[in-house]
Design goal:
3 domains; 5-stranded mixed barrel; OB fold (Dihydrolipoamide Acetyltransferase, E2P); about 25% strand; pyruvate-formate lyase- activating enzyme; alpha/beta; binds iron/sulfur cluster; Rossmann fold; 13 helices; single chain
């Protein structure tokens, strides 16, 4: 039987979709990625791995499920992921045949088989386990880089975020298990791994380890040439942790440190557990340890109570931090969170205007940083070739690079950067 999967949301969801595909394949299903333009799939299985980070995510999910039901009337429709885990009652009202929460995902094949036997719609949402869910992958959608989930859950309860309810408390993956998965990925041809989690830098909080133990495990795998990290919390970037990370030459100096706001009063209302001084110090420590460090971030604008002066403060701080890329989001209300009931909600138009100003400012910095790379020598892992024959890949700092000269996908080359524009770098292969 054929099963299509549609992934919404973050890198952890992408990993979990891949793991579900593997489970399904082991049970005889033929799997494929769902595409909205697919003609009627008949009696196949359609799985949506959902995200519930904003109310907008829920609205899009509802719309997608309705459309799938209309365009694939005989398909078995399954909704899994964060939305059913956080809001089981609302998930039960979706037009799905099977609703499976995050905690029950490992049993998705059994649930599907039961549904195919008795044809009775089911909702299966259970509390989270206290230990890391054992899932694994042996390949990934991208051909040279694989996301590897090493942590689940979050204990931080930012005032705007529903995720701790959808994902439960921090659970960390055993380093041996990380090593085993990466070894399998190397056999499948992967050279680069991105370690991801819901709150990555909380790794080991439940087992007495630290993120450095997971990085050591990943870097110890022969054949893995590059290891990257998902989102980092600034207050977790201690001197001790950075000193250990520094010893791993395979660790790429690309750090996504979540800022959210560059205004201390806003950060306090967000319950973000750090202030701008702490953030700047974390980046400074990383720069000292990794002189070629490249920083990226996420920024929320228009948080409840954010005044024009607060926004200006946030903008100035973001500019000073010189991010190579910033994902800027206007604050989106989420039912069930504290921020949703906070006074002084910022009007939609004002949020959009601030998001535009913040994006423009960050884009200006990005262009400056890319221009500064002209003339430098970089190491690039070649990923693919464009239609016009140019090789493309990413530098260790995750700057996109288009190259002239001979190289194959999966090959690491040294390049000299000749040009830069807002799309990335252009370079000549020199070795
Ligand atoms: S750190 Fe905050 S924003 Fe991130 S998942 Fe946890 S609660 Fe949500």
């Amino acid at each position: 039987m054929k099963a299509y999967i549609c992934t919404l949301g973050c890198k952890v969801n992408q990993y979990e979709s891949q793991a579900m595909m593997r489970l399904l394949q082991e049970h005889g299903y033929e799997t494929a990625v769902f595409h909205p333009s697919l003609p009627d799939v008949g009696e196949a299985v359609l799985i949506v791995n959902s995200c519930t980070v904003t109310s907008e995510s829920d609205r899009k999910l509802r719309q997608l499920v309705r459309r799938m039901r209309r365009e694939h009337p005989q398909a078995i429709l399954v909704v899994t992921g964060c939305m059913p885990q956080a809001f089981p009652d609302q998930a039960a009202t979706l037009e799905a045949d099977l609703v499976v929460g995050n905690a029950a995902r490992g049993a998705i094949v059994e649930q599907l088989e039961a549904l195919r036997r008795d044809r009775t719609p089911k909702v299966c949402v259970t509390p989270h386990d206290k230990t890391f869910e054992r899932l694994s992958i042996t390949s990934f959608e991208e051909r040279t880089r694989a996301f590897v989930k090493i942590e689940d859950g979050c204990d931080r309860f930012c005032s705007y975020c529903i995720i701790p309810y959808a994902r439960g408390r921090v659970r960390s993956r055993d380093p041996e298990d990380i090593r085993a998965e990466l070894t399998a990925l190397v056999k499948a041809g992967y050279r680069e791994a991105v370690l991801v989690g819901i709150n990555l830098t909380s790794y080991g909080k439940d087992t007495g380890r630290t993120l450095a133990d997971a990085v050591d495990a990943a870097c110890a795998v022969d054949g893995i040439e590059r290891v990257r990290l998902g989102s980092l919390e600034p207050d977790h970037m201690t001197e001790e942790l950075i000193a250990r990370l520094k010893t791993q030459k395979k660790l790429c100096p690309q750090f996504h440190v979540a800022l959210q706001s560059g205004c201390d009063a806003t950060l306090r209302r967000m319950n973000r557990h750090y202030d701008t001084a702490c953030f700047a110090q974390a980046c400074q420590r990383l720069r000292e340890a990794f002189p070629d460090a490249v920083f990226t971030t996420d920024i929320l604008v228009g948080f409840p109570g954010e005044t024009e002066a607060d926004f200006e403060e946030s903008l100035r701080f973001a500019e000073a931090m010189r991010f190579a890329k910033a994902h800027v989001f206007p604050y989106s209300r989420r039912a069930g969170t504290r921020a949703d009931t906070m006074p002084d909600q910022v009007p939609q138009a004002e949020k959009a205007a601030r998001a535009h100003r913040m994006s423009e400012a960050c884009e200006r910095v990005r262009r400056e940083l890319l221009s500064e790379a002209v003339g430098s020598v970089q190491e690039v892992l070649c990923e693919t070739r464009t239609a016009d024959g140019a090789a493309v890949g990413y530098t260790r700092g995750y700057l996109p690079c288009r190259m002239t000269g001979a190289c194959e996908a999966g090959q690491t080359v040294r390049v000299c950067v000749t040009e830069a524009d807002s799309d990335g770098l252009t370079a000549r292969i020199i070795g």
